[in-house]
Amino acid sequence: MPHRFRWSAEMGPQLEEWVVQGVARLGAEAVRERAAFWRGYRLLSMSRLVTEELTARHRAMFPSVQRLEAAETRATGLLWGVPATGETRARKGAARVDGVCPCGGSGWVAVWDEFGDPDLSFDLMCPVHGRTGCGARNGAGL
């Protein structure tokens, strides 16, 4: 997709060609991996759990915020009416973290009071690893 791309209804077929070209260039597995990293970053960001390391890796993978947002918007528009395959449904919007997750893979992030008061500290379920962490902590899966 060119840097100065402007969307119009007539551009649909051209946009589809660019998507196919991009997937062919990167490979389907690399595209899935980037999508999982983007989703993981987004989930952590919404929970205000993104670390500086994760932000640096995210910016290296997706250097242009505007381009990433435009690609996400256009991909959503292209895929809106396409039925999901069994493999796609099995992934269920998989999210991954490119680096070390704040939970360390446990599913829980310890949030400590800035003065060290244990009564004001708590554990927050990780938005990326929380389902497995919840099952491990409570003895039952979701």
User: What number of structural domains do the residues give?
Assistant: 2
Structural class: mainly alpha
Query: Major sheet: size, sense and barrel closure?
Result: 2 strands, antiparallel
| Poorly predicted tracts of residues | 133-142
Helicity, in percent? 40-55%
Q: Count the strands?
A: 2
Helical stretch tally: 6
State the shape: elongated
Strand content: 5-15%
Radius of gyration, in Å, reads: 19 Å
Provide the succession of SSEs.
Answer: HHHHHEEH
Mean pLDDT: 79
In short:
This protein is mainly α and 142 residues long. It contains six helices and two strands, in the order H-H-H-H-H-E-E-H.
Characterization of this structure:
The chain is mostly helical and 142 residues long. It folds into two domains: 9-91, no CATH class; 108-138, no CATH class. The chain has helices at 12-26, 28-46, 52-61, 65-79, 86-91, 130-138; strands at residues 108-111, 122-125. The chain has a two-stranded antiparallel sheet. Helix 2 (28-46) runs antiparallel to helix 3. It starts with 11 loop residues before the first helix and ends with a helix.
